[in-house]
Amino acid sequence: MSKKKIMCVFGTRPEAIKICPLILEMKKRSSLDVIVCVTAQHRQMLDQVLQTFGVIPDYDLNIMQNRQTLFDITAAVLNGIKDVLEEVRPNVVLVHGDTSTTFVTALACFYLRIPVGHVEAGLRTYNIFSPYPEEFNREAVSIICRYNFAPTSLARDNLLREGRNPANIYVTGNTVIDAMRHTVRSDYTHPVLDWVGDNKLIFITAHRRENLGEPLHRMFRAIRRVLEEHPDCRAVYPIHMNPAVREVAEAEFRGCDHIRIIEPIDVIDCHNFEARSFLCLTDSGGIQEECPSYGVPVLVMRDTTERPEGVEAGTLRLVGTDEEMIYHHFSMLLEDKTEYDRMSHACNPYGDGHACERIADILEGKVYSPWELPKGWC
Ligand code: UD1
Ligand code: UDP
């Protein structure tokens, strides 16, 4: 019997972190032939993840440009992926999440009538400008795809409400939880953690396109004010490689002794830093899923979130990008123990660490009864 050709296409760091564990799982299955194509929408940050997981791409479109626009990414992926899809003719193409690589690859598959499987399907804010352009990207992929791998039942419900075929929706959990089972170690050490010592570790990341410019200035000004008022805090900020982020961080944090801005760290370092943090401030999507597992409260510096499960569970708080709001909530969590304790309980509404096995089972066509996160998971 011929093997089923499953081609995984991805391009950025978070896609890679969440799809590499699935690639490794599918490679164990004798009925699946796994082909990996990276667009390299990110270059260094993608390669860092590929190296960590030991995944070697079969195809590499190498599209990244410095300060690339959405037009640059869209045109380069659409033109580059066509030849690969025509050469390989996969039975299914897997894409992940909501990046431009994800949307454009799904579009190319639609043009060539190749079935698409969407990992992390059904996340929504229903505001196509927030996050931008991700909300549009993921909504558009849902119109196209054959397999919707929803991480939670809430994500599934979004898809059902939108009229998607229930037979094509599977609740699997989020594959990032699978990755986390292998990354966090109790004996982990790092020189930056030595610098933090017994102080409170504040973990910071920021990169969203809609936050570039003035919102980033406001976020960083608020963070700096709080750090300067709390000498028992040390902030660690592994900065995104986007020069538009670096310029603002350099301007706002220059001369601040309480923060270390470091190069992007690999995912093992990142999860171990998160696990040891007192608090995280971020506009990242993935970090909103990871920190709740460690009982680390997250202040989400965005106006919307597609991950309401964590807000409902109490570990995420949406604080927007207003300087005073961020200052207020950040200070409060440092000064009000009751408030802090309310947010800091370990809970993970996003999965049980077996999402990759479920997705591989479904792709193999094994008998499959829809799986649900048990009630009262947290
Ligand atoms: C992209 C995704 C976003 C995701 C984020 C994860 C889109 C439109 N955006 O946004 O959904 O949350 O990745 O980080 O798909 N750069 C490097 N080296 C790298 C990576 C980036 O130099 O390894 C620089 C380049 O100058 C590049 C810029 O960062 O032009 C922006 O990268 P891009 O992929 O366009 O946007 P992100 O903000 O990373
Ligand atoms: N991450 C990492 N190194 C870093 C910063 C983040 O490995 O220096 C990981 C983090 O653990 C999470 C993912 O990258 O799994 C989040 O990526 P990002 O914030 O860039 O994108 P988003 O999730 O917002 O799309």
Quick description:
About 45% of the residues lie in helices and about 15% in strands.
List its traits:
378 residues, alpha/beta, seven-stranded parallel sheet, six-stranded parallel sheet, 16 helices, 45% helix, 15% strand, globular, binds uridine-diphosphate-N-acetylglucosamine, binds uridine-5'-diphosphate
Broad shape: globular
User: Can you count the beta strands?
Assistant: 13
Q: How much strand? A: 15-25%
Q: Rounded to an integer, what's the Rg over CA atoms?
A: 20 Å
Derived from helix and strand composition plus strand pairing, the structural class reads alpha/beta
Topology order in helix (H) and strand (E) letters: EHEHEHEHEHEHEHHEHEHEHEHEHEHHH
Strand order of the largest sheet: 3-2-1-4-5-6-7
What share of the residues lie within helices? 40-55%
Number of H/I helices: 16
- Largest sheet, if any? 7 strands, parallel
Distance linking N and C termini: 43 Å
Task: List low-confidence stretches.
Answer: none
List the ligand species. Answer: uridine-diphosphate-N-acetylglucosamine, uridine-5'-diphosphate
What is the overall pLDDT average?
95
Structural write-up:
- Strand 12 (298-300), helix 13 (308-313) and strand 13 form a beta-alpha-beta unit.
- The protein has helices at 13-27, 44-53, 70-88, 100-112, 134-144, 153-161, 175-180, 191-196, 214-229, 243-253, 267-275, 286-294, 308-313, 323-335, 337-343, 355-364; strands at 4-10, 32-38, 59-60, 92-96, 116-119, 147-150, 169-171, 200-205, 233-238, 259-262, 279-282, 298-300, 316-318.
- The chain starts with a strand and ends in a 14-residue tail after the last helix.
- The protein has 16 helices and 13 strands.
- The chain is globular, with a radius of gyration of 20 Å.
- The strands form two sheets. The protein has a seven-stranded parallel beta sheet, with helices on both faces.
- The model has no long low-confidence stretch (mean pLDDT 95).
- It has 378 residues and is of the alpha/beta class.
- Helices cover 45% and strands 15% of the residues.
